[in-house]
Amino acid sequence: MKNLILIRHAKSSWDAPLIDKDRPLSNRGIQDAHLVAAKAEQIFPKSYIVWSSTAQRARNTAYIFAENLSIPIDTISFRDDLYTFDEKTLEKIIKSCDNQFDNLILFGHNDAITNFVNTFGNRAVENVPTAGVVSISFDENDWKNIRKGKTDIVLFPRELKKYDPPLTGKPVY
Description:
By secondary structure, this protein is of the alpha/beta class. The protein has helices at 27-40, 56-69, 87-94, 112-120, 157-162, and strands at residues 2-8, 49-53, 76-79, 103-108, 133-138, 150-155.
């Protein structure tokens, strides 16, 4: 069984004239990342590998989750190839994960994440919002062989702001 947790970076700021890769998180992005990370602890597996895009907004989101979930920063693999908006590239990267790891947590970008979720999950998601988390399980023992999986958890900031349900392993709508 392989489990993938995709996390779209939190909302970034457009205030400073920076290149796209260097944009930091906005104040709302920081707050949303903390909100979602606080709830995500209940859905994260006990052991995992963590990958993140090297874009500043993805790095910062990974740092916030690491802080909230006690993930050692030095265990996060920051990868230039995850600075992609293409789901085929994202698929190729995910399928390259070493099979010794059953659980992969990945911080990345749209449209790659939403398109990947809709191709590989069994639940249609119109858009994975910033700071959104989607967990998909695959009945496979080899990352290279993942096909259609089961969308186990969908955790979006706007839903957490509406009400505060306990996480039961069922999707938050």
